[in-house]
Amino acid sequence: MTAVEVSVVLPAYNEADTIEQTVSITLETLASFLPEDAYEVIVAEDGCSDRTPEIATRLANEDSRVRHVHSDERLGRGGALAYAFERADGETMVYFDTDLATDMSHLEELVNAVRVDGYDVATGSRWMPENRADRPAKRGIPSFGYNTLVRTVLRSDLKDHQCGFKAFDRQALETLLPLVQDEHWFWDTELLVKAQRNGYRVKEFPVDWTPKGDSKVDIVRDVFGMGSQILRTFWELSVSPRITREVSLGAGTMLVVVALLLMTQYLDPDRVLAEMAGAAPEVVALSAVVYAVSWPLRGIRYRDILVSMGYRERWGFLTGAVFISQTGNLVFPARAGDAVRAYVIKARRSIPYPSGFASLAVERVFDLLTITLLAGVVMMGLAVTGSAEQLLTALTGDTVGGDAASSGRTAVAVASGVGLAAIGAVVAIVASARTDRNFVRAVIGRLSSDSYADYVAGVIEGFVGDVQTVAADGSAFTRVGIGSLLIWTFDVITALIVFAAFGYSLTPSLVAVGFFAVSVGNLAKVLPLTPGGVGLYEGAFTVIVASLTPVGVAAAIGVAIVDHAVKNVVTIIGGVASMAWLNVSLTTAVEESQSTDAIEPETND
Asked: Membrane-crossing residues (predicted)?
């Protein structure tokens, strides 16, 4: 009996109508150029729901050259191939799609490229100049764009990465498989790219190819799946290796410098100093101390959110993580600095990304709800006293002129929309937490029927589940709500102390307007028109204060500028200190979190 030299794996998912014919043609083609018993055909059946498992079992029983590798659950295309290859016996590993779109006359060339010619990897190509593949536009255009993107971003020398017609040397494949992270449609591309990066010899040759069945762009698979995997592989291969400790610390320092420069660009330092010249410096310093006190409260609140999700961490570490992410928000657009916190807690405490982002979502919703309620309560008071009409006049008339009025009108409009959205989000979260319906699967199922959709749905379900956990826990909901109220009360008190530094008495009227102005200003900052929300905050603050109190426009602008400057400076100082304390930077956080696998958290008492 001749030892098995070639293992052919046929990935099969619900192929009951075609698998028997595919196996028959494969055996016949292999027999035309290989000795009897020198090959095996493995049906890699990936959790099928039709008769494919029964057919594969029968074929294996009838022919010793056929094997059936079964998976109870869907592993994804790449996962099923890797699972079968690990159980194959041949020294040359081959796979091709079961629809036999690639002409089987090329099988001998594919096998012998590895078995005889000594290549580590061989792959068919539909995009080489001499090939004769028939590609309709709906297949050809997306395929051409995808392969161009891979060649450009991942620096691959190949023309076609997704042709389902490949062969591997066993030793090379055993080395490459642990390096491949994707388990779905990107598996082919990642394996080919990493084979090239690791110096393996790869042969690409033209094949005749005829499309089988229908094909369409799948939003989940092609856009979310393949696109995100290209970016992930680019980071892993091209960015991460260049981030040494020295580079990451230097980059983190530079980002802090950029934050300071941006702050001075939007907050004219001469103007800030001029405004502060008329204020009591010791009182301004007191406002900074009071604002700094609110940061441990942010860490404690974040701890309470994570505890409700099953992760116990020390509030000190979490306060540092919040400082780092908020410093990032002064640099990155669209509050992208929030994502840095998810990286930090993943890298330092192994909290999975879905849970990290879910905790951020909960925190943001509570922030918006709290300041919306604060603004709403004061607004009702203004309506009762008739002061609301003064504010409306200021927004529509010339009471407050110039840039402050324009910025203020925009800010109040944005704040109104954000406030309504926050209330809607809370209602939706609480309602969804009280129902057993799975909205995630339903929505994604409408967008995609591909196996990758199951993976994406699982990730999103984890995210939604964590958010719902907090909403469904009455005790956690109350603790986080009280924490949010304290945090934003300190934020308002900071502004009120700045008023005192400018010599204004903190009358009940000014305190109420201060709560309203700070709340609306912070709601307006959600729209990332400028770094750190600088501009909209000052505009909303000025219009509200100047129209509802005896404070003049110039003085109101001065208070707003100093108030925002104090808060940004405290944030940056805290961010720098936290980076040094935790020994991370904004780039280190990203570099240390390459894996997106869910890992059980450590428990810290």
From this structure: 247-267, 273-293, 365-388, 408-431, 539-562, 568-586
In 3D, which of 47, 119, 124 has the Cα closest to residue 83? Answer: 47
Rg, C-alpha atoms of the chain = 31
Q: Is 436 a catalytic residue?
A: no
Residues 6+ apart with CB under 8 A from 193: 150, 154, 156, 161, 233, 237
d(CA 575, CA 252): 10
CATH of the domain at 127: 3.90.550.10
* CB-CB neighbours of 585 under 10 Å: 27
Phi and psi, residue 196, nearest 5°: -65, -45
Distance of CA 361 to the CA centre of its chain: 12
**Long-range pairs of 176-183 with CB within 8 A, sequence gap ≥ 24:** 176/200, 177/82, 177/85, 177/86, 180/78, 180/82, 181/232, 181/595, 182/78, 182/229, 183/75, 183/76, 183/77, 183/78, 183/79, 183/82, 183/455
Domain range for residue 456?
A: 245-597
**Residue 295 included in any domain:** yes
The sign of the torsion formed by the CA atoms of 1, 19, 193, 357 equals negative
The residue annotated as part of the active site, out of 120, 169, 188, 563, is 188
Contacts of 16 (CB under 8 A, 6+ apart): 48, 50, 51, 52, 55
Task: Encode pLDDT of 407-429 as tens digits.
Answer: 555 656 666 666 677 667 666 66
Residue 451: both structure tokens together? 């196996």
Tally Cβ neighbours within 10 Å of residue 89.
15
Asked if 504 and 583 sit in the same domain, the reply is: yes
One domain for residues 168 and 116? yes
Is the domain of 375 the same as that of 284? yes
CA distance 360 to 377: 26
Report which of 44, 27, 195 is spatially closest to residue 123, judged by C-alpha positions.
195
Kindly provide the b/e burial profile for residues 7-35, where b requires at least 16 CB atoms within 10 angstroms of the residue's own CB.
bbbbbbbebbebbbebbeebbebbeeebe
Q: How far apart are CA 122 and CA 125, in angstroms?
A: 10
Residue pLDDT, tens place only, 310-351:
899 899 999 998 998 888 777 665 566 677 788 778 777 888
Q: Are 592 and 584 in contact (CB under 8 A)?
A: yes
Whether residue 251 sits in one domain with residue 193: no
Q: Are residues 203 and 291 in the same domain?
A: no
Q: Helix or strand or coil: residue 412?
A: helix
Q: How many residues does the chain have?
A: 605
Spell out the alpha helix ranges (H) of 32-106.
Answer: 52-62, 77-85
Token duo for residue 350: 């192994």
DSSP three-state, residue 7? strand
Contact yes or no for 8/100 (Cβ under 8 A): no
The 10s digit of each residue's pLDDT in 54-92 is 999 999 999 999 999 988 877 888 889 999 999 999 999
Give the three-class secondary structure for 95.
Answer: strand
Helices and strands, counts by H and E, the chain: 23, 7
Same domain, 252 and 205: no
Give yes or no: residues 32 and 80 share one domain: yes
The reply to whether 205 and 256 lie within a common domain is no
Q: How many domains does the chain have?
A: 2
The two three-digit tokens of residue 101, written as one number: 């779109």
CA distance 143 to 166: 17
